[in-house]
């Protein structure tokens, strides 16, 4: 189930349900704090796709999860090209992008689950940083933090983003859906698991997302 | 439409989703129920997500400099802030 793939910065890991079947879905996971909250969900969706006869892969992008590459050296453009590289390495036929990963989807048919603009993701991370500074008795404001981020990079919720990543996220709206179809949280039912203060799982939501993907793939 | 009770139910709904509470638990919140600083799971990342979700569901924008400890301390204070925001 643990596989490896050649990323630009060296070998990266991936979770793969690979039985050389004709339908192969590249899963691009949510980022940063949301990635932690949705990791169990993503793997459960993949397990269900596997049961429906569909291969799937979730690669570590450089700087993410188990990747040896430093996160602060990564750029949005770099992640986009790595996602395309991973799609080609795993011979993906489709893509399932989760939340902010909608910004880096390769040119494949597929789905964007609850897509979020990079700028919205950054806004939440900045707000969390301002709140935690305030809790510690320090005043920080968004404009100063952003200016610092553009110059030197920023640590947000324990993730150290380099200046190029901060700048790209700040400017990153939600791209047009292109060859993918958007799946809203209301199509899945229940509250988005990224909202939960403590990571949690809801098997019904994994059932629902896997059902949508597999029904469309096997139709 | 009663705007105030609508805000109240949206706010309870967001807290229910963020904290993973049952509908009954969220319905039992009183104005004095403690939030930030009282519920260990409600850390700064969770509060940031909570505020963003409130913005999305109610179509309001909350500036970071409007956020202070007092407004987040109890359910009543947060509700009063959001109601004022919607009315203003």
What does this structure look like?
The complex is a heterodimer of chains A (219) and B (88). Chain A folds into two domains: 2-116 and 174-218, Rossmann fold (3-Layer(aba) Sandwich), CATH 3.40.50; 118-173, no CATH class. The model of chain A has no long low-confidence stretch (mean pLDDT 95). Chain A has helices spanning 32-51, 76-89, 118-135, 142-152, 163-170, 185-188, 203-218, and strands at residues 2-7, 10-17, 24-28, 55-59, 94-98, 110-113, 154-156, 159-161, 180-183. In chain A, the strands form two sheets. Chain A has a seven-stranded mixed β-sheet with strand order 1-2-4-3-5-6-9, with helices on both faces. Chain A has a two-stranded antiparallel ribbon with strand order 7-8. Chain A is built from seven helices and nine strands, in the order E-E-E-H-E-H-E-E-H-H-E-E-H-E-H-H. Chain B has one domain (3-87): Non-ribosomal Peptide Synthetase Peptidyl Carrier Protein, Chain A (Orthogonal Bundle), CATH 1.10.1200.10. Chain B contains five helices and no strands. Chain B has helices spanning 3-19, 23-27, 44-58, 69-73, 75-87. In chain B, helix 1 (3-19) runs antiparallel to helix 3 and helix 1 crosses helix 5. The chains are: A alpha/beta (219), B mainly alpha (88). The interface between A and B is medium-sized, with 25 and 25 residues.
Note the topology.
The complex is a heterodimer of chains A (219) and B (88).
Chain A: E1 2-7, E2 10-17, E3 24-28, H1 32-51, E4 55-59, H2 76-89, E5 94-98, E6 110-113, H3 118-135, H4 142-152, E7 154-156, E8 159-161, H5 163-170, E9 180-183, H6 185-188, H7 203-218
Parallel strand pairs in A: 3-4, 3-5, 5-6, 6-9
Antiparallel strand pairs in A: 1-2, 2-4, 7-8
Chain B: H1 3-19, H2 23-27, H3 44-58, H4 69-73, H5 75-87
Helix pairs in contact in B: 1-3, 1-5
């Amino acid at each position: 189930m643990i596989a490896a793939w050649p990323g630009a910065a060296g070998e990266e890991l991936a979770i793969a349900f690979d039985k050389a079947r004709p339908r192969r879905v590249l899963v691009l996971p949510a980022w940063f704090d949301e990635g932690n909250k949705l990791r169990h969900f993503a793997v459960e969706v993949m397990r269900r796709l596997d049961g429906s006869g569909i291969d799937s892969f979730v690669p570590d992008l450089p700087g993410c999860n188990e990747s040896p590459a430093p996160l602060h050296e990564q750029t949005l453009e770099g992640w986009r090209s790595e996602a395309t590289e991973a799609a080609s390495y795993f011979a993906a036929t489709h893509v399932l992008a989760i939340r902010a990963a909608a910004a880096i989807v390769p040119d494949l048919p597929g789905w964007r689950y609850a897509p979020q603009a990079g700028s919205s993701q950054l806004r939440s991370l900045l707000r969390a940083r301002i709140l935690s500074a305030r809790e510690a008795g320090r005043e920080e404001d968004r404009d100063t933090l952003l200016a610092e981020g553009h110059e030197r990079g920023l640590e947000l919720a324990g993730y150290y983003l380099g200046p190029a990543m901060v700048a790209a996220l700040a400017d990153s709206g939600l791209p047009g859906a292109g060859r993918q179809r958007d799946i809203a949280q209301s199509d899945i039912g229940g509250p988005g698991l990224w909202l939960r203060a403590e990571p949690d799982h809801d098997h019904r939501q994994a059932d629902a997302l896997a059902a949508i993907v597999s029904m469309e793939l096997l139709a | 439409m009663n705007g105030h009770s609508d805000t109240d139910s949206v706010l309870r709904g967001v807290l229910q989703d963020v904290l993973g509470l049952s509908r009954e638990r969220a319905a039992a919140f009183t104005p004095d129920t403690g939030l930030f600083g009282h519920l260990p799971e409600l850390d700064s990342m969770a509060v940031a997500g909570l505020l963003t979700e409130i913005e999305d569901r109610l179509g309001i924008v909350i500036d970071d400099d409007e956020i202070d400890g007092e407004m987040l301390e109890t359910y009543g204070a947060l509700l009063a802030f959001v109601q004022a925001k919607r009315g203003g």
